[in-house]
Amino acid sequence: MEAGIVGLPNVGKSTLFNALTCSQAAQSANYPFCTIEPNEGIVSVPDGRLDRIATYYKPQRILPAALKLVDIAGIVKGASEGEGLGNKFLSHIREVDAIVQVVRCFEDDDVIHVAGSVNPLSDIDVVQTELLLADMQLLENALPKVQRSARTGDKEAKQRLEVIEACLKHVNEEQPLRTLELDPAAKKIVDGYGLMTAKPVLFVANVAEDDLHGESPLVQVVRDYAAANGAGVVAVCAKLESEIAELDAADRDEMLESVGLEEPALAVLAREAYRTLGQQSYFTAGPKEVRAWTIPIGATAPQAAGVIHTDFERGFIRVEVFSIEDLEIYKTEAAIRQAGKLRIEGKAYIMRDGDVCHFLFNV
Prior knowledge:
- The protein is α/β, with parallel strands linked by helices.
- It is built from 14 helices and 12 strands.
- The strands form 3 sheets. It has a 6-stranded mixed β-sheet, with helices on both faces. Strands 3-9-8 form a 3-stranded mixed β-sheet, sandwiched between helices. Strands 11-10-12 form a 3-stranded antiparallel β-sheet.
- Strand 8 (279-285) and strand 9 (289-296) form a beta hairpin.
């Protein structure tokens, strides 16, 4: 699973990406298309629960969950018609699983806004309009072939035609497909086309250094828009975060304290991007390592076991599960078991975020 970082030119996308991935790549602060091919990076997902578990195991290493981020070049008005290398950039967006849109919420005379003035809602509208137009073109191009297949009486083609027509109607009403209610079968069809407005979205309000908590009117309009459209919002000062990312641990803590932050805003962003992708974590623990494993929300126990190794899923017998809270109360697995707090779950068990697990399997 991966998320694509998108936005207009000069909103701080690449600064944010480089800070997230601790990249030292040179960048041009004021050149609209400095990212031609998408840069990719793997980002750890900070999770305080790992340290809580590690307290009782003293492991040799701690491994957090991770997510893949793709930095996609700036979108401009007319991208769906090829403006600003738009077709190439839109194809990169089509390949990711979620969209992280960076929206400029700061004034700076030294960083020119591509539209000439800072207007977060206008920026959001430009990106959404281009994605809607691109989806519309894709659906209209797919329609004739599906219509021909449906006329032969093919049941699957008829279902596909119904889904495409419903999607076309929705985007023609200027509504993103993520707001269209679909059953699982229809959603699978939509996912197969890589339709961009069907992807979940997280907005990143790139704020000034004097608005680290995102309290300005510019950020509030983004929050209001996101709330009305079922999206999340994270306020981040990309400039400050890029400076923090280059510091060692001691200096980082000192700088965070000086600006009134408990942790880098990038940590919040990584967790929100993880959630936007529909992912959650379960943990395995032992003296060698304490590790977070990534699974989709709603995954079954065998599917979760398969993330460790396909043999675990194929030969799944059962999973032993306990909570971090019980670990903190009883201190050891043996005490948890003795207290009757160790759960034995079978193949139908739906994993919960934060489960600590031991899988039993036989191949």
